[in-house]
Write a structure and sequence with these properties.
Shape: globular
Helix content: 40-55%
Largest sheet: 2 strands, antiparallel
CATH class: Mainly Alpha
GO cellular component, one term: nucleus
InterPro entries: HMG_box_dom (IPR009071), HMG_box_dom_sf (IPR036910)
Strand content: 5-15%
Structural class: mainly alpha
Keywords: DNA-binding, Nucleus
CATH architecture: Orthogonal Bundle
Order of helices and strands: HEHHHHE
Number of helices: 5
Pfam families: HMG_box
GO molecular function: DNA binding
Number of strands: 2
């Protein structure tokens, strides 16, 4: 049983942030753990975090968007066996996330640009 009904959730969304392009909502799970903004990272996110930490001196004066572009090109040039390692790490992270937040539910709500 969820701690908040779906109708109550939609009502609170519509009354708080108007005219958002999109909103991402995560709900508290049955055990009462707050799973808000706690997603299991995908393979690229794990790779990006590692590269950013490793090359912090190079990335220190760049924006997050610039870092993502540079690391994205690095990711595209990685061999498949390297990417597979990160996919396995992401799968492991997903399993750990499911253990910690067993009742986690993710709902993405798209809104019109001009409402």
């Amino acid at each position: 049983r969820l701690l908040i009904s779906f109708k109550a959730l939609l009502k609170s969304i519509s009354s708080t942030k108007k005219c958002q392009k999109s909103e991402i909502i995560s709900i508290v799970n049955e055990a009462g753990n707050e799973a808000d903004k706690v997603w299991s990272p995908n393979a690229f996110i794990i790779y990006r975090r590692e590269k950013k930490a490793k090359h912090n001196d190079v990335f220190s004066k760049r924006t997050e968007a610039e870092i993502s572009k540079v690391v994205g090109k690095m990711w595209q040039n990685e061999p498949e066996d390297t990417k597979d390692m990160y996919y396995r790490l992401a799968e492991h992270a997903k399993e750990k996330h499911l253990e910690k937040y067993s009742g986690y539910i993710f709902i993405a709500i798209k809104r019109l640009k001009n409402c």
